[in-house]
């Protein structure tokens, strides 16, 4: 009996049981189920904010264009980048004159979200806002 006890006590059984490993996997799964939707929500909100910010960033350049030319005719993304703001975001997809050069429309796309402003003096609208319309 004594030798049997020594053999049982002499075994070095270190490690985790199957139940312990399953509990850890379940806890990780629960944490992922909470974290992933939060991350996706934060990313979505960041894309919306970035699109609106990019449009707001381009407005002073469009106003400077008008100040130099007394019209918005000829306004383009390339004209704004080369002459007024070389650091203008690459998300700005459209910048153009409307109503025979009396107004402008600037549009930016970040991820799946668009922001647009019709100026001068317009409000930046997001693709989820009522009254949103792309620059045609």
How would you describe this protein?
There is one protein chain. The relative contact order is 0.13. Strand 1 and strand 2 (103-110) form a beta hairpin. It is built from 3 helices and 4 strands. The chain has a 4-stranded antiparallel β-sheet with strand order 1-2-3-4. The model has no long low-confidence stretch (mean pLDDT 87). The radius of gyration is 29 Å and the shape is rod-shaped. Helices cover 51% and strands 18% of the residues. The chain has 136 residues and is an alpha+beta fold. It has one domain. The N and C termini lie far apart (92 Å).
Helix percentage range: 40-55%
| Euclidean distance between termini CA atoms | 92 Å
Topology, number of strands: 4
Categorize the overall geometry. Answer: rod-shaped
What is the CA-atom radius of gyration, in angstroms?
A: 29 Å
Strand order of the largest sheet: 1-2-3-4
Number of domains: 1
Which whole number gives the mean pLDDT? 87
Give a quick account of the main beta sheet: strands, pairing sense, barrel closure: 4 strands, antiparallel
Q: Compute the number of helices.
A: 3
Q: Would you tell me the structural class of the helices and strands?
A: alpha+beta
Strand content is: 15-25%
pLDDT below 50 for ≥5 consecutive residues: which ranges?
Answer: none
Please trace the helix and strand order, writing H or E for each element: HHHEEEE
From the structure above, extract its key features:
136 residues, alpha+beta, 3 helices, 4 strands, 51% helix, 18% strand
């Amino acid at each position: 009996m004594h030798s049997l006890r020594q053999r049982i006590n002499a075994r070095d059984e270190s490690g985790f049981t199957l139940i312990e490993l399953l509990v850890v996997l379940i806890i990780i799964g629960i944490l992922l189920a909470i974290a992933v939707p939060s991350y996706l929500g934060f990313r979505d909100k960041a894309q919306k904010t970035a699109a609106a910010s990019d449009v707001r960033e381009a407005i002073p350049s469009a106003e400077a264009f008008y100040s130099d030319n007394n019209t918005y005719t000829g306004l383009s993304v390339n004209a704004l980048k080369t002459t007024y703001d070389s650091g203008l975001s690459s998300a700005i997809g459209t910048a153009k004159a409307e109503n025979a050069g009396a107004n402008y429309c600037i549009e930016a796309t970040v991820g799946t979200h668009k922001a647009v402003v019709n100026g001068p003096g317009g409000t930046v609208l997001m693709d989820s806002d009522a009254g949103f319309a792309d620059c045609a």
